[in-house]
Amino acid sequence: MSSQEALTLAVDLARKLKKTAADFHGEYTDGIIHYGATGDVTYEVDVPLERAVDSYFKVQKIPCRVMTEDSGVKDYGDDPEYVFLIDPLDGSRNARRTLPMHCCSIAAYDINAKEISEALCAVVARFDADEEFTAERGCGATLNGRRIKPSRKKSLDDAVIAMGCHFASAVPIFAEAGRRLGSQVESPERDVWVKAYGSTALELAFLACGRVDMIYDVRAGAGLKATPKTYDIAAGLLLCQEAGAIVEYGGRRIPQKLALDPKLPAQVRGAGNKRLFNTLVNTLP
Q1: Contact (CB, 8 A) for 157 and 186
Q2: Residue 114 neighbours by CB distance under 10 Å
């Protein structure tokens, strides 16, 4: 199976997951908390999406290894040739409340890949809108089939940054970062806009296509339990790489590389171009 064939498979799966999500978004139970194989919370809306992934690969009968948020690592067939690192539903809290910004994130790798930046192809498909981001290594990144490019904005003035302050407990961690960014603009009317969409995969996709100028999420390094994992950022990383955005990621030190393991927490910071990225790093070292 070539990278193009793997991409075709990933897109097909993403579209099937979107149909499943349409049947179950808004499922909300304020009760017992369950945890998946990777240690993250499993919500009622996540369950049918995980089942859909399992059913899809059983039907396809393609020897592959599948890594997901809730099921962990599972092989389908003998001698798998490819690895699919999948978050069937990124933005579960949004989906269960019928809020916008939820998607699936799918990255495909050769079976010998060791690190999440080695993806051959990737898909981030929105479930709340008709938007499908795809990338194939060496072939660029697209949104609904059209090539995308990141922001050309060079300064912090009136820039848009996606931050990982999705939870009240995380706000104090990002308060100082916000203060530092705001101190670099010319006037209050030109202050940096802070966004928190509740889906790291979509935030990276938005960086790749220029909807946001920067991304900054350091929850993992701050010791918070609710943080992005490798499956949240893998597809988005390839989108950014192929579009031309500058991104660093990793564990406690952001530039650190991450193994192809769904249990690993991740950090990420990036910008649409090198000049703005340097400004971000110098402001928030």
Answers
A1: yes
A2: 13
CB environment 217-245: b (16+ within 10 A), e (fewer):
bbbbbbeeeebbbbbbbbbbbbbbbbbeb
Structure tokens at 187: 């006037």
Q: Let me know if residue 258 belongs to a domain.
A: yes
The type of residue at 242 is: E
23 with 104, same domain: the answer is yes
Task: Check whether residue 142 and residue 191 sit in a common domain.
Answer: no
In 3D, which of 205, 202, 209, 111 has the Cα closest to residue 151? 209
Two tokens, residue 199: 């889906």
179-214 residue pLDDT tens: 999 999 988 889 999 999 999 999 999 999 999 999
How many other CB atoms are found less than 10 A from the CB of residue 278? 12
Inter-axis angle of helices 46-60 and 3-24, to 10 degrees?
Answer: 140
Question: pTM for the full model?
Answer: 0.93
* 209 and 251 housed in the same domain: yes
Instruction: Please tell me whether residues 172 and 196 are part of one structural domain.
Output: yes
- Is residue 152 one of the residues assigned to a domain? no
Instruction: Output the six-digit token pair for 87.
Output: 């978050």
Number of domains in the chain: 2
**In terms of residue numbers, what domain contains 229?**
160-283
Going by C-beta distance under 8 Å and a sequence separation of 6 or more, which residues neighbour residue 54?
71, 74
Q: At what angle do helices 200-209 and 230-243 cross, to 10 degrees?
A: 0
232 contacts 90 by C-beta, under 8 angstroms: yes
Instruction: Check which CATH number belongs to the domain holding 123 and give it.
Output: 3.30.540.10
